[in-house]
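User: Structure tokens for both sequences below?

Assistant:
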Amino acid sequence: MARAFRADPIDIRILRALIAEPRASAMALAQRTGLSRNTIQARLSRLDDRNALDSFERCIDPATLGYPLRAFLFANVTQRKLTAIAADLDAIPEVLEVLGLSGTIDLLIQVAAQDADDLYRIAGQVLEIDGIDRTTTALVMRGLIDYRITPLLPDDK
């Protein structure tokens, strides 16, 4: 098994600066970190090439686009159909994220909806997918802790 990429202390400095100012240019990041602009660009390129940077889509609130209702669908599936199921879920625009789980639930599907009727429609679309045997829906009532990564970053030394 190939070893996963792991950020070094210079990468961590750049990531901290990027978290503090996500729209910063390479020059601004260089000034903030004390590194050269070329180093910043090379390191950002390397982080991107190694899939260390998540999609910037994660930063857009679906409510801004008219989808204020979020929910999670828990699905039990026929495992041998997982590739086709993933492709069918990918074709539903309101599906934001799908995670494969261990345990009694096979998939965690995050969706965004315009309202309860829209959620009902989306859940029906998901349930119609060949290989999805059963779903349970849970509404997101309130966000308590937003997605974060900063607590995992080692302290500056």
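Moving on to the next sequence.
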Amino acid sequence: MNAPPRGRDLGLMSCHVCRLVTAWTEEPHAVCPRCGSPLHARKTGSITRAWALLLAAALFYIPANVFPIMRTQSLSSKDDNTILSGIVELWRAGSPGLAVIVFTASIIVPMLKFIILGYLLVSVQRSSGFVSRQRTKLYRFVELVGYWSMLDVFVVAILSALVHFKILSRVEPLPGVVYFGVVVVLTMLSAMSFDPRLIWDNRKTSQ
């Protein structure tokens, strides 16, 4: 079964800003007739930017897990929790469902994003035409789940605002949550920088 034609095969291209479909052009200074934005057949420097952002996110992921993200204070105790220790505390406190949700959003989802984006970038750089449709679905999956990684940041922010009763009890955000927030933003930017159309530039006709 032959693969469906690409926009390039049909002499068409789209604007990166307003998504208007226009006639294919190789002119370096071509602009969109609707919004005036520059027209590019592919995002300029897509792979380089995506790699840089992904590697930066991987570096920030280390302190995000090592440093505590939240401090819980009461009259009798003061506890600093990292992501993993916070998950363990939720489980021990009788909230296994919430612990699983936080573990999925804070550990599994970021790791999946690192693996999938790395795989997509390597496959494009190697000019692989293998399973292009499945790789495109993987990219859409990364886009879909990207925002859910912010769950830990939201939890800390909400607890800091609600659990604040002066000397009786309070929750304070710690540096770990900042690093984790940076990881989420960088992985989202990496996914946005990657041009999924590169996947189809070396496709096999059997796909």
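User: Anything stand out in the second?

Assistant: Strands lie at 12-14, 21-23, 70-74, 78-81, 169-173.
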